[in-house]
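thought: fold this chain, then report.
action: predict
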Amino acid sequence: MNFSDYFASVVSNIEITDIIDILLLSIFIYVILKFVRETRAAQFLKGIALLFILWFLTSIMHLYAVHSILNLILESGIIAIIILFQPEIRSMLEKFGRRGFKTFSSIGEIGILRDKDNKNISMIQAIVSASKNLAITKTGALMVIERDTKLGEIIKTGTEIDAEPTDSLILNIFYPNTPLHDGAMIFRDGRILAAGCFLPLSSAAMEDNLGTRHHAALGVSEISDAVVVIVSEETGIISIAVNGKITRRITPDSLSDILKDFLIPETEEKREVLKNIFKNKNPLTKRNKIKNKKKNKKKTDKKQNKDI
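observation:
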């Protein structure tokens, strides 16, 4: 049997279930590779690959003692991976759950989106105004805005407040030497839910001049989809952490735009832009504009003739 006959026989025996099976396996491998590339697991996998090479070499060279030890290490490798990378695995599963069920969970929220947007707008205004004053006075602050992932465990570590957000209240809470100024403030549904909360610290490498607040902000952004605003106590620089990434040197104006992009799917500014786009595309408005231009042109021509 030549290669063409063998290939034709293989193709003829492929069923729909085989195609689905291959597609699902490809997606699974892609997700795993993406997860490995974006976390510290990449270096760990290099170590596992080296162990497999050593295991193969010791088998060929009949080094039984070393080979048996490597067998024990590789057999317990799956359990070791789960223990060592529990935060990363948890983060990956949470992100998968948020993206997979976000469409279905948002169907019943259509009627309350406008009210939620209004609450978020007033919350953003309070955060931006307070951040500006905190940056000027170089007062350290850590504000966590909860989104889809609930932070109930973190909220329990602090003091529940449940208050309407205002810049004066935020400034009072983060005032130096007050009981709650060292912890994080948690926002939920446009309200201040708790303050003085403890956040998990990130183990990722960061700049030397970044302190505990930045490590804590990055840590909570790694295990959830929260948006975290940080004001440095040493420099007064405003930073923001989202999805395990931190961005520094943010101005109050850009902070407002960033928070609106993350927390308000369609801001009032975007609605105005859309209205203008649809107005320009409407054929009736185009005709009216053309008529008005012609009328104005005739009037100007008449005036010029009279002047002459």
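thought: worth noting. Residues 139 and 233 are 5 Å apart (CA to CA).
final: tokens above.
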